[in-house]
Design goal:
Length: about 120
């Protein structure tokens, strides 16, 4: 197979087929087949990253996901955000997160600070 960039699903499928063939051969390291396998694996990985990229959730989505994971209700966020109306305003994107809220949510819900300081959509 001539190695070339993977631009679409057909190229991707062809590369996967060739990887299967090479895996069956179980080539010794340093052989042309081993090198081809390594290069194809890198090309496939790069294509998958581009084609099926998963974006990081914005802060509010991250909070809602964590609430679902922990079976929390809005009222359960009052220790981190403030009163129930403030929680509602934050979750409905009417009010942004303050530095205090970000710190409390990161610590209390075990969310990465990087996620919480990201701009909301």
């Amino acid at each position: 197979m001539q190695i070339k960039p993977i631009h679409n699903e057909a190229d991707y499928d062809q590369a996967l087929e060739r990887v299967d063939e090479l895996m069956e051969l179980n080539p010794a390291p340093g052989t042309p087949e081993s090198d081809e396998l390594e290069i194809l694996a890198m090309l496939i990985e790069k294509y998958e990253e581009k084609a099926w990229a998963i974006s990081e959730p914005d802060p509010i989505e991250a909070i809602k996901i964590r609430m679902e994971q922990m079976n929390l209700k809005q009222k359960d966020l009052t220790p981190y955000i403030g009163n129930k109306s403030k929680v509602s305003e934050v979750l409905n994107r009417k009010v942004g997160l303050s530095l205090n809220m970000i710190y409390n949510l990161a610590k209390g819900l075990n969310l990465p600070l990087e996620t919480l300081v990201r701009p909301s959509r």
